[in-house]
Design brief:
314 residues, alpha+beta, Glutathione S-transferase Yfyf (Class Pi), Chain A, domain 2, two-stranded antiparallel ribbon, 45% helix, binds glutathione
């Protein structure tokens, strides 16, 4: 038997050093505050550009656990674009933390291979979602906040529900306002809690997160959605973080001042969006848990996946 003191000291030193090494590579930070790298491809789709709206020309690559990719799955469904824009579901590789393309696509079996097709020197993160152009074999856009605007605006001539406008001009300003706050404090806020490398950075992120959730709870007291009666892109963006909250962020990312189920209005709101036609099919709680708890190694080295799942059924 190893001497207990030695065992603890060796484990503490090696574990902490490895944790810091992994976090500084995987989750770059400034003074312990997580900094999300910005996306690389930012093209749009329009009649006069390189990427014109066409049926069966584009593919979305998405992972079911990813809240950013989930936004694009929801908008694709709500607009009725399943027959217009293909979907390839990628899965995480526990071995190297990248995304795998299980059935292969464009002769690629990993997302890195797909990114390399566009730029063989690409060294950055290979993130989902990706909006891929099959015609020119290139990435049109890999920023979810932009892809959902494209899906809402640019494919109406082919969409089953062209009349659904999730980003109407008259609400543009208020939607943008929500997006900005919600991105920082909630969407990225949960990651800023989970990937914080100092107590101060964690506390700032966590208080910021719950202050905004408290504020939204009050707004939802008298409003069905963030901007009133109408579902908008701001709701889609909030929803994909909220449905992962009690399941993974509360425990794994230490966002544990309250659960979403402790907020009556936010709970009602989540349930309502979950039960909109098509949305449920985009939510896979088992995969969300398995991917976060199974693959975010630095935060859960034992790989044990907790049992609970929320119930949003009507
Ligand atoms: N700002 C991007 C973020 C996308 C993102 O971070 N996706 C994660 C999955 S949740 C990813 O693919 N990470 C892979 C990696 O960083 O290697 C967006 O909203 O599209």
């Amino acid at each position: 038997m190893l001497n207990q003191k030695w065992l603890i000291q060796i484990a503490q030193t090696t574990w902490k050093t490895m944790w810091q090494l992994m976090m500084s590579n995987l989750a770059p930070s400034e003074n312990g505050n997580y900094q999300r790298p910005s996306s690389t491809y930012s093209n749009t789709v329009n009649e006069n550009g390189d990427y014109i709206p066409e049926k069966n020309r584009y593919t979305i690559y998405a992972g079911l656990s990813c809240p950013w990719a989930h936004r694009t799955l929801i908008v694709r469904k709500l607009k009725g674009l399943e027959e217009v824009i293909d979907l390839v579901i990628v899965t995480p590789s526990p071995a190297d933390g990248g995304w795998i393309i299980p059935q292969g696509s464009e002769n690629c079996y990993t997302l890195r291979q797909l990114y390399s097709k566009v730029n063989s020197f690409y060294q950055g993160r290979c993130t989902v979602p990706v909006l891929w152009d099959k015609k020119t074999k290139t990435i049109v856009n890999n920023e979810s906040s932009e892809i959902i605007v494209l899906l809402n605006n640019c494919f109406n001539q082919f969409a089953s529900y062209p009349e659904l406008n999730l980003y109407p001009d008259e609400l543009g300003k208020i939607i943008n306002n929500w997006n900005k706050k919600i991105y920082h404090h909630v969407n990225n806020g949960v990651y800023r809690c989970g990937f914080a490398q100092t107590q101060q950075a964690y506390e700032d992120a966590c208080y910021g997160l719950f202050n905004l959730l408290d504020e939204i709870e009050i707004v939802l007291e008298n409003n069905r959605y963030l901007c009133g009666d109408r579902l908008t892109l701001a709701d889609v963006r909030l929803f994909t973080t909220l449905i992962r909250f009690d399941l993974v962020y509360f425990g794994l990312f230490k966002c544990n001042i309250k659960r979403i189920t402790d907020y009556p209005n936010l709970s009602r709101y989540c349930k309502e969006i979950y039960n909109l036609e098509g949305v449920k099919e985009t939510c896979n709680f088992q995969i969300i848990k398995q991917d976060y708890y199974g693959n975010l190694f630095p935060l859960n080295p034992g790989g044990i996946i907790p049992l609970g799942v929320p119930n949003y059924q009507d």
